Amino acid sequence: MCFWKGSFVQQMVVLFVFLFGFLPHIVNKTICIPPILKAHSNSCREFSQSGDLFIGQIASRFYLVNFTHIFNKQPSSVLNKDIIVVPKNYQEILALVFTMEEIKKNPTILPNVTVGYHIYESYHSVQRTYKASLDLVSTQHKRLPNYKCDTQNNLIAILGSKYSELSLNLANIVNSYKIPQFTIGSLDSRFVERKLFPSLYRMVPNNNYEYNGVVHLLLHFGWTWVGLLTVEYFSGERFLQALVPRLYLNDICIAFIKSIRPWGYAIDMSGKWNIDVPKISDAMNNKTSANIIVVYGTPVVMDILIWYLHMAHLPSGKVLLVTSHWDFKTTSKSPWNMQSFQGALSLSVHSNEPPGFRTFLQNLNPSEAKENCLMQDFWEKAFNCSLKKNNVGDKIKKFCNVEEKLESLPLSIFDTGMTGNSYAVYNAVHTVLHVLHSMYKSISKYRRQLHYFLKGISFNNSAGETIQFDENGKLVAGFDVTNWVMSPNKSFGRVKIGSLDLRAPRGKELTIQDDSIVWHSKYNQVLPISVCNDKCRPGHRRKEKEGKPFCCYDCVPCPEGKISNQTDMDACTRCPEDQYPNLDQSQCIPKVITYLSYEEPLGMTLVFSAIAFALTTALIMVIFIKHKNTPIVKANNQSLTYVLLISLLLCFLCSFLFIGQPGQVSCFLQQSAFGIIFSVALSSVLAKTIIVVLAFMATKPGSRMRKWLGNRLGKSIVLSCTSVQTGICAFWLSTSPPYAHTDMHSLMGKIIAECKEGSVSMFYGVMGYMGFLAAVTFTVAFLARKLPDSFNEAKFITFSMVVFCSVWISFVPAYLSTKGKYTVAVELFAILSSSAGLLFCIFFPKFYVIVFRPELNNREQLKCNKA
Known about the structure:
Elements: E1 3-4, H1 8-20, H2 41-44, E2 46-49, E3 53-59, E4 62-64, E5 83-85, H3 90-104, E6 115-121, H4 126-137, E7 147-148, E8 155-159, H5 164-174, E9 181-183, E10 200-202, H6 207-221, E11 225-231, H7 234-249, E12 253-260, H8 263-266, H9 277-284, E13 292-295, H10 299-312, E14 319-322, E15 345-349, H11 357-362, H12 366-371, H13 373-383, H14 420-441, H15 450-454, E16 458-460, E17 466-468, E18 479-486, E19 492-500, E20 510-512, E21 540-544, E22 553-557, E23 562-563, E24 573-574, E25 579-581, E26 588-590, E27 592-594, H16 601-626, H17 631-634, H18 638-653, H19 664-698, H20 711-735, E28 739-743, E29 750-756, H21 760-783, H22 793-817, H23 821-852, H24 859-863
Parallel strand pairs: 3-6, 3-8, 8-9, 9-10, 11-12, 11-13, 13-14, 14-15, 27-29
Antiparallel strand pairs: 1-7, 2-6, 4-5, 15-18, 16-17, 18-19, 19-20, 21-22, 23-24, 25-26, 28-29
Helix pairs in contact: 3-14, 4-5, 6-7, 16-18, 16-23, 18-19, 18-23, 19-20, 19-21, 20-21, 21-22, 22-23
C-alpha cells in the first residue's frame, strides 16, 4: 500500500510539486521500489549500501561549469561535458565507507542492526542539491515528499554538504522532517540561530569563528596592511561584511579588495575564459605594498587563481592566508606552476587521523574498483585511466593496472591523510550510530527521538578525541593552522603548525609553532612584513597622513619630557615625577637625587676649606690668647677681638649645615644660624672700627669722647646689632621657616634635594640686614683709614670690608643663576671667602708681627706716627 504522510501544508506542497514539477516522470501507475538502491549509471552519480537503517550523504565530487541553456531541444541527462571532476573530494565518501566498516567490526555498537548509506551527487549546484534532497526524503526516484510505499524509508540522518549555500538549501527541505543534518564544512552566520534550524548539527565552527581566527593570525604576525580576494557572489559579499569590520576594530587596514567571477561567469558563451585579468594582476603582482592577501578560499576562487597564476607567470611572492573552504585541491594533474602558493597559510577544519584510515586507502586497488561503481569511478578519475578493456568509445586510452597507488598522487589530486572535512564525516557517522545505540538501550519516553539523545551525546572516538555538542548543536572544536609547503620535487604538502581554539582563555586562543613555518623563498625564511609603512620606533609617535587609511602614518619624535616605549604608539606619555626620559625618549629612567654631598669633589673641597679656615682661626685665637699682654693685642680691644674670632670660627663651622642631604633640622638652622653668626662678626668689626675712631678723637685736648671708651661700648654695639638680626630670624622661623624640599623639574634627570627658604622676603631681609651692617662698617672704616698711627686697624678693616662686600655683591647674581647643589656651593663659597677675607685682612698683619716680628710688638712702635 502506498500513502502520503504529513501535515496539510506539506501535502499541498507535495501536490504542487507533483502536478507541475515531476508529473512527466510518473507513468500510468505508481511503482513501489524497495529501499535498497543499486548504483546508477551516468558515471556513478548515486551509490548505496543496504541496511535496516541508512544515512544519506550529499557529495560534491563535480562542478557544473557550463550554464549555457539551449531551449530548442530536450536537455541532455548526460552531464559529462558540463562538469569538472575533483578527485580529492572522493575522500569524504571514502571516509563514510571507512567509518561504516570500522563500526561493523565493533560488536558493542548496534550489534543487531545493520546501517547502510545512500550517496547522492550535488554537482555543487543548488538545483541538484534540491533534487537530491527530495530523493532522500521520498520513495526513491519518485520525488514525492511524504509519499511512502509498503516498505518504510528508514532515513535516520543526512551528511550535508561542506558548502554553506548547499547546506542551507538542504536544510530548507529536511528541516520539516526533523531529520538530523550534519554539516561537514564551515558555515556562515545564518546558521547560528538554533530556532531556525533545529535539526542542523555543525561538525565545524561557523564562519564567525573562522573570521576571528583570521584576525588572530594577522595580529600574531603583526600584519596590518592586507589585501582581500573573494568571489563575485553573495557568499563573497557576506565574507567582506563579516571580516572588514573585524579588521578595522583590530587596527588592520585593507590595501585593496578584489573579486573573481564564479565558474559560470568565468567562462563565456563561447567556452573561453572570461577573467578580469587586471583585477588579479593588481592583487598578486609586486606593485602593491601589501604582502599578505586574505583569500576567501572557495574552490572556485582557488581554481581560477591557480590557473591564472600558472598562465600569467607572475612573480608574486605574496603570502596567501586562505579560509577553510579550500583544501588545496585542483581538477587537473597538469604540472601547473604552484610556486606562488609556497608558504601559504590556511585555517583548516580540525582533523585527527583515526587508526587504520591511511591503510584503508592504501589497500584500495583496481580489482575492487571493477566490482564497485564508486571505486571504479574514483579510480578512473584519480589516475586518468580506464578499467574497461577494448572500450572503443572511451577517450581514455590508458588502461588501469596494479601499479597505480594512491600515495603516488600529488596532494592537489588526492590526500591519503585525513582532511578536516573527512574527519567531520567520520565524527558525524560515529555520532549518529552512538546515538542510535543509546536509543535502543534506553527505556526513556524519548526513545524514538534522535534529537533528544544528540543533546547529551559525548564519547571518545578511535582517534582519542572527545566528541560532544554544545547547546547550539555545534561540535566543540576549533581549527588547525596549516602551512602549505612545496618540496624539491615540486609536490605540495600540508604541515600543521598550530591550532585555533576560541574557547581558550583570552590571549591563548592561538597556538603557533613559528619556527616550523616555511615561508615563500622570496623572504629567505624571515617573517614577511606587511605594513603600510615602517613601524614607528620607540621614542616616536604616529601622525596620521591626511587622506590615507589609519595604518598609513608618519613617525614624529616625542616632545621633550615625553616618551613612547612601544612601537606604533598613538601618543607619547609623560614620565612620572621621579623619572625622566632617556636620550632616545624610549623609556623612563629613575631620577638621581642630587645635593651637595661630602663624597663629591666639590663638597670635599668646601669641607676641607672650611676645616682649614676654622683651624687657622683657632690657631690665631690661641696665639692671641698666649700673647694677650702684648701691646698689639691690647691695643684693639681684646674682648671684641675674641668675639670676632669666635664668630668667624662659627661661620666656618656653620658651613657643615649646608653640606649633605638636607633634612628638616639642617634646613631650619642653616640660614638663621649663618645670619646671626655673621651679624655678630660684622657688628664686632663695626664696634672695633667705631672704637678706633673714638680713640683718636679722645686724644685731642678737652675731648669728651674719652667717657665713651671702654668695653661697654663695644658690647653694646655687638648686642644691639645682633639682636636686630636675631629678631628677624625669630620672626622668620615662627611664621614661615625654611623646610626640606625635593625639586623634580628644575634639572633634567635630577631630583634636587634642597632647603626652601619658606619666606623669600624674610631670607632677603636677613641678607639685606647683613649688607646694611657691612655698608656701615665699610663707610666708618673708610673714613678712619688715614688716622695717624703706624698700626691703624681701620686700614685693615676697610680692606677686609672691600673683600667682604665684593664677595656678597657678586653672590647675588650667581645665587640666582644656579640650581641645585651649585646654589648651595655658591652660598658656601661666599660664606667661606668673606669670612676668610675678614680673618686674613684684619688678623694676619697682627699675627705676622706677633709671630715673625716680635720686636715691633711694643708701645713705642704702636705710637709712632708715620704720617
